[in-house]
Amino acid sequence: MRNRFVKDIIAEKIGIKILNGSYPPGSKLPSIREVAGRENLSTTTVQRTFYELERRGLIYKNQTSGYFVIHNRQLLIQLKMEECNHLTRSLYTSLEKLGYSEQEVTSLLEKHIPAEDRQN
Hints:
single chain, Arc Repressor Mutant, subunit A, 6 helices, elongated, DNA-binding, DNA binding, transcription
């Protein structure tokens, strides 16, 4: 396992909420102070988190109103697919390291995907 900075962990949590629609396009994010209080972190750490999310293209800063989720739904869909691909590759690599074959990995995944989702 690799070491991760707290800002990266919080950025991942917020990023997932953006990509799954919990924070819809154009919505205002909680303030830096709110997130810092909720996560028991310094405002500097949360500010770095928001800079990272901005660098990734998920949010933008309005100088007077705070941070907002980008409006571009197509870009969010693209970023969501990129994250899905990354997670899938990571899972496959991890299972391969454990000694599972490609066929076994496929079988394991099929067992955990509900039948109604496999048909779509």
